Amino acid sequence: MKIKFTLNGEKIEADINPDAYLIDVLRDHDCLGVKKGCDTGTCGACTIHMNGKPALACVVLAARADGSDVITIEGVREDAKRIGKYLVAEGVEQCGYCSPGTIMSILYLEKCVENPTDEEILYYLNGNLCRCSGYVGQLRAIRAYMEAKNNEVCA
Amino acid sequence: MKYVRNSHPKKDGMQLVQGFPVYTDDLAPKNALIVKVLRSPHAFARIKNIKTDSAKKIPGVVCVLTWKDVPRVPFTRAGQCYPELSAYDKFILDEYVRHVGDDVAIVAAKDEKTADKALRLLRVDYEILDPILDMEQAVDHNTVVHSEKELFTHINVGCDAKRNIACEINLGLGDLDLALKNSDHVFKARYNTQGQAQAMLESHRSYSYLDQNGRLNVVSSTQIPYHTRRTLARALEMPRHQIRVIKPRVGGGFGAKQTAHSEFYPALVTKLTGKPAKIIYSRQDVFRGTSSRHKMRFDITLGMNKDGRMTAINIEGLSDTGAYGEHAQTTFGAAGKKVLTLYNKVDACRFSGRAVYSNNVPGGALRGFGVTQGTFALESAINEASRELGLDPIKVREMNMIKKGETTPLINMFTKDAGPEPIPMDSCLLETCLEDGIKHFDWEGKLQKHAQADKSSHLKYGLGMAIAQQGSGLPNIDMASATIRLNDDGFFTLLTGSTDIGTGSDTAMAQIASEILQVPLERVVVHAADTDTTPFDSGAYASSTTYTTGNAVIDAAEKMIDSIYETAAKFYNVSKEDIHYENGQIFCKSLNEEISLELFSNKIIYNTQHVQLSVTGSFVPKKSAPPYMAGFAEVCVNTLTGEVKVTDFVGVVDCGTPINPNLAKIQAEGGISQGIGFALIEEVKVSGKGVLQTDNFMTYKIPARRDIPNIRVFLADGHDETGPFGAKSIGEVVINTVAPAITEAIENACGVRIRDLPATPEKILLASLEGVRVNKENIETSSPC
Q1: Which CATH architecture best describes the domain B480-619?
Q2: B243-246 vs B310-322, strand pairing mode
Q3: Residue B782 confidence (pLDDT) above 60
Q4: Position B778 pLDDT exceeds 70
Q5: What is the distance in angstroms between the Cα of B21 and the nearest Cα belonging to chain A?
Q6: Phi then psi for B552, rounded to 5 degrees?
Q7: Predicted pLDDT of residue B770
Q8: What is the C-alpha separation between B628 and B428, in angstroms, rounded?
């Protein structure tokens, strides 16, 4: 079947299997930063934005993307750099496999909450599993990022 | 020091966070055949027949392979140096399937859909056999997991497959009976540790293709490229020189990828068809078709005098290696060797027992590698015995543990080719770990606070602690090497066989090279883990990279400096003594001239000597350089639900001098989190028929962000003479103290002792209700706990 959607700002027409998951279609379109970790929508490594909200591409049927606006990490490289710098400075990207999905969630958090508390950070990111870092360092990195951003705004 | 002991960001970090295509599946050719494995639904069965006709007829199916189509060569998938200690008990495919998830047939097709369809059309006629699933019943059971005549071990490890015994261990010192007889107090208890999944986020995966010379190239998410090359060569009956294994970026391993799994199938398909082939394990494939932490049981007998002096330790253990014996002997051995040596003042000690075959999913390597299991048992027993005698568990540790400069003959016994000379633990900072831990954790303050807590509250707080060690590489077994090249324009290429699986070891190796070569980190380009182009390294396991490969990098870098001196002498036509090198500048003292490394390298390559400076260094550890750790846990037990929250965890780690303190700290935080999962949440569960009840992340829970408290890690200021710039390992030791510290804290909080991990709310609530029934007078006066 054919679907049309916007992928990272570009209009796409794709001929897909009706049972294809969005993650496979995205990876076929060279969005290789979308990672498959669990196949069951549990780990968050495949987090993308669909119509402005986070979605787990490994459990969303590609057909559902018809007519929607999809953003992957490839579409927000500059943001990824801006936020990722803080993860890297703390050493908490580690294997990096969960990083793109985590950054997509951080971007949504930013959009929803201006000055998130720790609890809000944990709430928005709880669906992004990381087996390497133990999370506390990621929290430090996100706090540092938010703080730096605020300082920038004040300045 | 300029570059080491510096929290430099990981060299690959920025590419990773931006999602650049650097992992196995990102790099695989788009036209690769999709390989899938049909897995057994039965725990034990003989394959009477497999009908493949219908599957083969599907357009797009390229090959269907059964046990009749693969070489009949036994091997072990365990990543260990040759000769391995694991039995050669695996064929690529066999007539028998020995666990639910064992491989039955291989399918390769043009795409995933076609491969799935082919799998569905395979008709397997099984003769279902009675499985043995209870490790306690395995020895001399009617069911023999391995009856094939080809099974063998290179080294006598006590393997007796006809009796389902994978290995037998019996080691110790002194007269145990006498020591126990003379003890004031003898404490006995049984502890069980569960199967735990490594649960790295990137599953096992590989792809393969033939290169321009017709050689088999295998790109794999692995911790052991060199062992994989050797094992693939054997399994596929190919010469090693026809195989190249490349490791790209890896999305975590934790030991899961210290056993070769996914590589065999695409490699075989490529060998047979000449076409590129790829396999991506589903999460279910990982759970059912790979390995988890060996489930172990320990019976501990501990002799302790009234003053807290430990007199005797006897550990009788049992380990379930499941259907195959990968890492059976080494993990089980580590559970004794790296646990007994922590307490060097006992009059006698012993560790004995067996690892047994069963029809469970195989055991394998997971961070801590048996030491985690053994530490849980012994540290728990010490905590319990201290409690019974009314002693402070910290004082008991201080009195009995190994200290700086001390040793035990056990270390000689457990170190290959160690000889009789005592091996002192010169860099041991366990005392500092304890002292600093008490302070940072505020042990006394917390004790007082909890003593004054409201007794009627259903929330009860408690404290617990434990100590642990691990190794830094395997002395006289696992070796590493590094090659350094001076390129034109004065930058260096560092080639190492070491396998960065996300830890940042490539960066740490570059830092070590930078320190000696005296050039900024960006001028050391790292290329690693490609068996064709990088020198040998046993792999990322046994906490070895920083220590073992780090020392090899030092060796290479020092040789490079020497080579620069020698070549500069020829360049200036002076003696070597006349040359001085510092921070990328070469000075000729007598001529009073200097030249930058950039210009020098350009000259010697293009104009003058016409040489490429290239040197290789190697290293094998000669002695054990264990890292140590003290872990302190505070928990809050909800006595109405049995739920445990870790409210504080302090870890003080003696990893020698950290090469990259940030990355070391994250290793510790990550390891402690994995330890919290092991202590409280995670368990590989099996049904009565051997079917996994936990084969995805919905049923097998790993800690999420909100399950992890504010872990606080401190690095003791250590230095090991034998380590690169004083460094020891850190990757594994960090998981070991967590479970015993937490279960002690639970007892301290609510009086319930959990000896079978994980400490789930159900177990705690049931045990506390049991306690109420036993101790009736408590019913009226106190809450369930």
Answers
A1: 2-Layer Sandwich (3.30)
A2: unpaired
A3: no
A4: no
A5: 6
A6: -65, -40
A7: 81
A8: 7
Extents of the domains making up chain B = 13-129+204-280, 292-473+623-781, 480-619
Give the distance, in angstroms, between the CA of residue B614 and the centroid of all CA atoms in the same chain: 33
B203 interfacial to chain A (CB closer than 8 Å)? yes
Contacts of A123 (CB under 8 A, 6+ apart): none
- Interchain pair A99, B662: CB under 8 A: no
| CATH 3.30.365.10 at B292-473+623-781, yes or no | yes
Task: State the CATH number of the domain containing residue A123.
Answer: 1.10.150.120
3-class secondary structure, A60: coil
Domain B13-129+204-280: top CATH class: alpha beta
Instruction: Give mean pLDDT, residues B100-120.
Output: 98
Pairwise CA distance, residues A74 & B95, whole Å:
47
The residue written with tokens 């020092």 in the block is B558
Q: How far apart, in whole angstroms, are the C-alpha atoms of residue B779 and residue B785?
A: 10
Q: Does pTM top 0.90 for this prediction?
A: yes
Which tokens in the block code for residue B592?
Answer: 């009073």
| Residue in the block written with tokens 């039995």 | B87
Find the helix or strand (DSSP H, E) in which B694 lies. none
Burial zone of B104 (CB within 10 Å; 0-12 exposed, 13-18 middle, 19+ buried):
buried
Distance separating alpha carbons of residues B225 and B255, to the nearest angstrom: 13
Judged by DSSP in three states, B752 sits in coil
B198 by DSSP, 3-state: which? coil
Q: Which residues pair with B350 in a beta bridge?
A: B172, B314
Nearest Cα of chain B lies from the Cα of A22 at a distance, in angstroms, of 15
pLDDT at residue B591 in the model: 97
End-to-end CA, chain B: 54
3-state class (DSSP) for residue B261: coil
Mean pLDDT of the residues in chain B = 96
Name the burial class of residue A143, with classes exposed (0-12), middle (13-18) and buried (19+) by CB atoms within 10 angstroms of its CB: middle
Residue B139 has pLDDT above 50, yes or no: yes
> Max Cα separation, chain A?
52
When computed from its CA atoms, the radius of gyration of chain A, rounded to whole angstroms, is 16
Phi and psi, residue A12, nearest 5°: -120, 140
CB contact under 8 A, A96 and B13: yes
Statement to judge: residues A55 and A108 lie in one domain:
no
Task: Match 């072990």 to its residue by tokens.
Answer: B76
Q: Which residue from B520, B523, B512, B521 is spatially nearest to B485, judged by alpha carbons?
A: B523
CA distance A10 to chain B (A): 19
Interface test with chain B among A79, A117, A132, A139, by most B beta carbons within 10 Å: A132
- pLDDT value of residue B773: 55
* Domain termination site, one of A21, A47, A72: A72
Q: Could you count the other beta carbons within 10 Å of the beta carbon of residue A10?
A: 9
Core vs surface per residue B624-660: b (16+ CB within 10 A) or e: bbbbbbbbbbbbbbbbeebebebebbbbbbbbbbbbb
Res B624: pLDDT: 85
Helix (H) or strand (E) holding A136: helix A136-154
Stated as kind and residue range, the H or E segment containing B176 is helix B176-181
Convert the pLDDT of each residue in B578-634 to its tens digit: 999 999 999 999 999 999 999 999 999 999 999 999 999 999 999 889 999 999 999
| Token couple for B540 | 């990322």
Q: How far apart (Å, rounded) are the C-alpha atoms in residues A25 and A107?
A: 23
